[in-house]
Amino acid sequence: MVRGLQRRADTPPPAPEPGTTAADDDSATARAELAALTVPSFEHPEHLATALADARRHFLLVTPHLRTAVITDVLIGRLKNLLRRRDMTARIAFGLGRSDHDPEALNRLQRLADTHHNLTLVRVDEPLPHDLIYDDTWVNTSFDWLSYRGGPARVYRREEGTLIRAAAAVDDRHATCAAIIDAAITTHHP
Q1: Most exposed among 83, 96, 120, 127, judged by the fewest C-beta atoms under 10 Å?
Q2: Residue 168 contacts by C-beta under 8 Å, 6 or more apart in sequence?
Q3: What gap in Å lies between CA 132 and CA 52, rounded to an integer?
Q4: Region 90-115: what's the mean pLDDT?
């Protein structure tokens, strides 16, 4: 989907037939659609809050670092509410080859995982995109979900993501990430 839009936006339109502008309109439409899919750095925390509030089937988060500045009482409360939902499966993968986490942040998430059978928390060694996936929504990004609070008043970080809401693509990505996370359970414990 995104690659197709990029091709349409980047490909110079063929010369329009006399009296038409359809080619220009298609290129402009593709550029506008790509812009709508871009998630700027300061919008990432909003997407995480939406995922925690709205997810009904599954929630999957991949992040390199765990910091107490982000893993607050509010976030833990939102995660608890998420985990109370019937048929909810939640996975959080962290590490991605790094080991510098705030011990208290890790302990808070581990206690939550220990008390909720539907939350999997696991350290993953291989680098992965910092995905947020819930139901039919996927944010593919470099944003550090559980380390950087973000927000429009913070120092700008050039970490944009792509919002994808194509159910088949989201389901495929969820299955891929879930398999990597589930395989990491056998090799690591947080």
Answers
A1: 127
A2: none
A3: 10
A4: 90
Which positions ≥6 away from 122 have C-beta within 8 Å? 91, 92, 93, 94, 181, 184, 185, 188, 189, 190
| Residues linked to residue 101 through DSSP beta bridges, in sequence order | none
Q: How far is CA 11 from CA 6, 25, 27, 123, in A?
A: 8, 13, 8, 42
Please provide the DSSP assignment of 167-185 as one string: HHHHHHHHHHHHHHHHHHH
- What is the number of other CB atoms lying within 10 angstroms of the CB of residue 112? 19
CB burial readout 126-148, b (16+ within 10 A) else e: eebbbbbbbbbbbbbbebbbbbb
H-only helix segments in 55-159: 73-83, 103-115
Q: What is the mean pLDDT of residues 5-13?
A: 52
pTM, two decimal places: 0.77
**Burial bucket for residue 17 (CB in 10 Å: 0-12, 13-18, 19+):** exposed
Distances from the Cα of 74 to the Cα of 12, 27, 71, 130, angstroms: 48, 43, 8, 21
pLDDT 10s digits, 35-70: 456 777 778 889 999 999 999 999 999 999 999 999
Alpha carbon separation from 123 to 42, 71, 126, 129 (Å, rounded): 26, 16, 9, 14
